[in-house]
Amino acid sequence: MTELPQATQKKLGLVIDLDTCVGCHACVISCKGWNTENYGAPLSDQDAYGADPSGTFLNRVHSYEVQPDTGPAQLFHFPKSCLHCEDAPCVTVCPTGASYKRAEDGIVLVNESDCIGCGLCAWACPYGARELDQAAGVMKKCTLCVDRIYNDNLPEEDRIPACVRTCPSGARHFGDLGDPDSDVSQLVVARGGVDLMPEQGTKPVNKYLPPRPKDQMPEIDVLAPFLAPIDQEPKGFLGWLDRTLDKI
Amino acid sequence: MTPKQPVLDLSPPVSDEIRKTTCYMCACRCGINVHMKTNADGDMKVAYIEGNRDHPINKGVLCAKGSAGIMQHNAPARLRKPLKRVGERGSGEFEEIEWEEALQIATDWLAPIRANAPEKLAFFTGRDQSQSFTSYWAQNFGTPNYAAHGGFCSVNMAAAGIYTMGGAFWEFGQPDWDHTKLFMLFGVAEDHDSNPIKMGIGKIKARGARVIGVNPIRTGYNAVADDWVGITPGTDGLFILSMIHCLMKAGRIDLDYLARFTDAPALVNGDPGSPEFGLFLRDKNGKQQVICRKTGKLTAFDQPGVRPDLSATHIIGDITHRPVFHHMAEKYLTDDYAPEDVADRCGIPAPRIRAIATEIARVAFDEAFELDHEWTDFRGDVHKTMTGRPVSFHAMRGISAHANGFQTCRALHTLQIILGTVEVPGGFRFKPPYPKPATAHPKPHCGVTPGKPLDGPHLGFVQGPADLALKNDGTPARIDKAFTWENPMSAHGLMHMVISNAHAGDPYKIDTLFMYMANMSWNSSMNTGGVMKMLTDKDTNGDYVIPRIIYSDAYSSEMVAFADLILPDTTYLERHDCISLLDRPICEADAAADAIRWPVVEPDRDVRGFQSVLCDLGARLGLPGFVDDTGGQKYADYADYITNHERRPGIGPLAGFRGADGTQAGRGAANPDQLNRYIQNGGFFTHHIPDGAQYYKPWNNAYQDWAVETGLYDAPQPYLFSLYAEPMRRFQLAAEGHGDRQPPDHLRDRIKHTMSPLPIWYETDQQGNDGFTITALTQRPMAMYHSWGSQNAWLRQIHGHNPLYLPTKLMRANDLQDGDWARVTSPHGEITVPVMEMASLNENTVWTWNAIGKRKGAWALDDAAPEATKGFLLNHLIHELLPPKGDGLRWSNADPITGQAAWFDLKVKIEKSPAQTESKPTTPKQKSPVAAAPKNLAWKSR
Amino acid sequence: MHPAPSVIFFSVFSGLGFGLLFWLGLGWPSPTGVVAFVFFAIAYVLAVGGLIASTFHLGRPERALKAFSQLKTSWLSREAICAVAALLLMAVYGAGAVFLDQHWRIIGVLGGLLSLGTVFTTSMIYAQLKTVPRWNMPLTPLNFLSLSVAGGALLAGQVTWALWLILMAGAVQFATWIIGDTRFAASGTTLATATQLGQIGSVRAFEPPHTGTNYLLREFVYVIGRKHAFKLRVIALLLICVLPLILLLVPFSHAAGGLAVLAHVAGVLTARWLFFAQAEHVVGLYYGKR
Ligand SMILES: Nc1nc2c(c(=O)[nH]1)N[C@H]1C(S)=C(S)[C@@H](COP(=O)(O)OP(=O)(O)OC[C@H]3O[C@@H](n4cnc5c(=O)[nH]c(N)nc54)[C@H](O)[C@@H]3O)O[C@H]1N2
Ligand SMILES: Nc1nc2c(c(=O)[nH]1)N[C@H]1C(S)=C(S)[C@@H](COP(=O)(O)OP(=O)(O)OC[C@H]3O[C@@H](n4cnc5c(=O)[nH]c(N)nc54)[C@H](O)[C@@H]3O)O[C@H]1N2
Ligand code: SF4
Ligand code: SF4
Ligand code: SF4
Ligand code: SF4
Ligand code: SF4
Ligand SMILES: [Mo]
């Protein structure tokens, strides 16, 4: 049903740390691998070995350069998948009821057997989180690995999204953002997590942790005494050495 | 009201079976869980690959390449059957033959060589993960001409580390991620230790520790660094020595550490007339001597209770012997290394250099801490605690792939050592089998006897001119001229020189070039176009100048087209392999560890594991290590070899589950069930270093004893870190005229200058580079492995072509916009390629992703694939030789000490070009030996 | 946005068709027999043809019936339902006119209003999208409705109405462009808000996540042809408005009437192409494109 639930029991989602993501694309491929083999139709690839390869991915890593007023330009790697918005416009526009937001955990899903592949939900999503699979003709999107996180066939510690499990630098976190005491909520508070495009009114569940300030090492003065020379001359240095060694 | 929702199966079965093995997409060698499903036809298929949580290297995480393994394993470019060349070399025209015929051809070519002149076989093995095995095969064959890829990869890093501190970065050591508070990274885009570095960076960032990235390019690790130092390429040595200058001048160094654990107090002969001038004053047992601070007496450094004096000198006759530390003070305290003097050349303002040195010192000394582990050092001194200095460093090719890389790497290690941050908590830690000093490694061997094995291992660590691989007439014994006066300390050989030397017949002609796993006609060679010519060049009789080429690859690479005989390998999921302690194991700083691969699926093609083929070929050739007492084949296949081969009694390729009952670690009899035990254990074996032995390993009795027990060495071998590289001084002495092995005159000055026993910085040879002012670099993309990522349907969507990235200033200066084309020229060649702007880039540096460009017809890709049309290689601009200087000699584009290929010394100029339809130069298409790839994929095993 | 021909044809022709049905339903004109048949046939060919065209862009057209299920939330469902209701009612009304010489006023008016409703719901599919600021304004439905009613009037032969309505539609079209041009900036969505990196400095897209193309780029990032936008706008306005007005003002002839219709339709097609081609989806920001 394309009506959004009034409130969800949990708000499961991801927290992505832009201070730590090294842009390795591991999450992209691990997501592709898991979701090709699992939930719904495989994520297909067209012209896979040809001139214009293009396939369905549920998670992609962008990169941006930022030029501050002073100091060198900075570069950030920027992973992006569905943000499981609370006010998900992709859900309400869907004419078939294929898109829905789960009442129990807030995961936004596409029921592929109902999807007519009209693409409207992708039009409505500001984040580019939905891709229409060209082979299956149905809309694909991040499932928050709904077939992993509750899966009794997986060991407890593996009941997390594939992308989170694989991220080598630990830049991706998964949890209940509706519970203020959860690790992810705490992390968001501690690091000042933000919403993407808040003005779109989608109220994303996923949060982004902004990068910490960079290139801030003080260049002089405060620490200067630490490197005050003990003597200008090698000879003097050796004298210092003798005196110091006597004290050790 | 809750809207109606579909009912989902939240617990679908994940797979029918998990098979645990080891990834192969790079040297990191992570543990993987291969999920298998039985499909409708009843076949077990690979369904999904994830990281193995129990594995010491990756602890569950997996990179993009590893996760895309399924596409690698199923790639349409996989070779299907042995191939015999039928067309011209380079054309790609082959006929498929049976294995028996292939092996017979190889035997017919190789047997006469072995009987008459074994050196006429050159066997080089690329990024081989079985070097202890392939080198054993080559040694038994009897040729001196064996090496893997290290010489063009990062031998500077490896050799500098081992010569300086008995261990190197690569994947052989790691920062103490749990304790370090400042991590400084030089010249790394991806690294051999890919996942551990990423995990480590994540770990320390989560703690809020500082990361400093020194790199002309700010991507990846350097993008997440808190501070970025966009250094001028090739000047890191100067920057580091300047920081050493600052730290010494301020006395912010660890004197206690230097006195106890390094050769800083070791006395050096000061008699300019002596043939020992500049060598260590040694006792009759050959041990370095120091003055003991307690007694004031001259003594061997390692005697119980000795407290070596960093300052005291020793006079014999009228000659003063001074400790290394005096030499360092004299050298590094001069203004030559003052920040103000180096700032312009490094492109780093002087205050910034001071600030970084200050910060390093602050963390090392003011944030020092103690770990509550009592330990005893080799002199018998008991230390109540372990002092932590939480500053750590890592570096790779960005500093090693320059012609001054060896000394730069030594400078970096010197910086680590004066801070007392090596093998201490919070600092840099070795992974077994390191620490292991250069003197404990073999020396190179080149003694050839027809029909017999070589007189010892090929590669090793020379200690002076006596160990060079020279023939009696002084000419190079090896085809790659490793261990000669041109590059005396070339510990990994010089794979990048093999083809050009073989083509030139210099130092001699060879008959057969046998290669494994190296795309030498393409991205792993400098001068790609030239190499293709050399491989196809014919003499006046119409015969190929390099008469025969045998090659083993698993895929339809560019190199395949240039071989006469192809021995098709399996993919990594279809064969046995061993990642051995004799080689490049998967150890951690806390544990020795090794691993295997095993056929989690059987090949569906007529291909064979290359190592098993060598077992067969070795037996056909009657190589001693490969035939049993009756002359039959000794090892049925590689699995048999892994299980039953013993290098030394009780020491085999695998350390785990040894002994008849599988309970022994390290040493023990062969265990027929060993491979099964590995499989049951997840494909690997770990053996933990006991508590109290985990730091200070080179000097820690508890570690030394454990290492002997584990079979890493046969007797304890504590040693001092070598701030002063005596072997280098020996080469200088020869250049100064001492000794009977003398360098050719044209090399004397260079040897005297570059082989300084204390690290120096020198400008790399820029002759012929006038007007070429921009440095051009490559970086490895994290989601691609060299050339073979492009056959992967998932990965090639991420990196299907590679623009040349230009800094904003150069874009403006040349009136360029994103997507425009530029002509890039070096003294050696030219390319025309698309460009893109990048702001976070050193303003005189351009770069591109490595190895994305492909030759048409290779890798089962469409001729119009972007890799083959827009993609390009920078290698066309890089020559293995420097531009002619007019002295009649061609100097190699390499480090004069190790022969390391100087990829990153490339200088270019850039101008706007009209838009092109394809990148230039174009290489004519090769015929594909494999069937055309499918158009679309919708992969699902069930 | 990618100007997919199926969607352009759908919206233009169904707009015309329903516009005609609107007039027929109101009883201007009120033909019977064969003449009625021709009128209704034209209206149904346009409306139904347009609807069929719209299914061409579906990934799973065979499931199209499912699109009727979400009346409560989805403008696309509303459109589908509205369209079917309008077509059914107008079929009853039309049957009366063709076969029974009857004009069932109430059914006609209701069907006519539903026809307009269909055009309105269609327009709301676009107008509701915050992600495409150019569309996300009340002028979008006004634009669709005015074109539909004007084109319908033209087809229905309501010359006087058509004159005024065409003039109005032209004015609305013009306003749609001019105000539309300011919408993206007014939306407040920028690369800085999209990445939340704006606090640090000015943000620029560097490497895209993939070197090739993908669904998003094909669907939402259409930059080709925008440079001809101004010329196309002039042409569209000439065709929608100026030319038909002239043709209607010259003494009436069927040829001139036919030409006016053709010109108008060509103009609306051009305008609709621009409607898509000029629309920028905010997702383009992530790719450094709009
Ligand atoms: N411009 C530039 N050039 C460079 C570098 C650079 O930084 N810049 N880096 C250099 C360095 S450090 C290196 S290590 C080289 C790497 O260059 P290469 O060692 O040539 O690496 P690959 O391109 O991966 O080629 C290895 C070959 O092994 C084959 N192969 C893959 N798997 C298997 C297998 O299981 N069995 C067998 N038998 N074959 C297999 C592949 O198909 C491929 O043909 O490139 C060098 N070239
Ligand atoms: N994903 C992936 N992983 C790989 C490989 C791969 O192909 N793909 N290849 C493997 C192999 S064979 C190797 S050798 C390793 C190599 O791994 P790396 O050592 O990371 O090698 P490169 O990618 O060549 O990166 C060299 C870095 O040095 C920087 N650099 C160049 N010149 C200078 C300089 O003068 N000073 C400083 N400070 N920096 C400089 C470049 O900007 C670049 O960032 O990676 C291994 N891991
Ligand atoms: S990110 Fe896009 S697809 Fe996901 S819930 Fe929000 S609007 Fe829907
Ligand atoms: S594409 Fe599928 S999920 Fe999306 S709006 Fe259309 S029917 Fe709904
Ligand atoms: S949560 Fe699952 S589906 Fe979503 S991006 Fe991560 S791996 Fe992909
Ligand atoms: S796996 Fe982690 S570090 Fe790599 S791109 Fe994804 S989020 Fe970034
Ligand atoms: S780093 Fe990646 S490619 Fe290398 S071994 Fe590990 S998973 Fe495989
Ligand atoms: Mo390498």
Summarize this entry quickly.
The complex is a heterotrimer of chains A (about 250), B (about 950) and C (about 290). Chain A is about 20% helix and about 20% strand.
What would your notes on this structure say?
The complex is a heterotrimer of chains A (248), B (942) and C (290). Chain A is of the alpha+beta class and 248 residues long. Helices cover 21% and strands 18% of the residues of chain A. A three-stranded mixed beta sheet of chain A has the order 10-1-11. A two-stranded antiparallel ribbon of chain A has the order 2-3. Chain A is elongated. With 942 residues, chain B is an alpha/beta fold. In chain B, the strands form ten sheets. Chain B has a seven-stranded mixed beta sheet, with helices on both faces. Chain B has a six-stranded mixed beta sheet with strand order 30-32-31-34-29-33. A four-stranded parallel beta sheet of chain B has the order 11-10-9-21, with helices on both faces. The two termini of chain B are 38 Å apart. Chain C contains eleven helices and one strand. Chains A and B meet through α1, β2, β3, β4 and β5 of A and β3, α1, α7, α8 and α9 of B. β4 (60-67) of chain A pairs antiparallel with β1 (202-205) of chain C. The structure holds ligand MGD (2 copies), iron/sulfur cluster (5 copies) and molybdenum atom. One iron/sulfur cluster binds next to α1 and β5 of chain A. One iron/sulfur cluster binds at residues 23, 25-26, 28-30, 58, 62-63, 65-66, 194-195 of chain B.
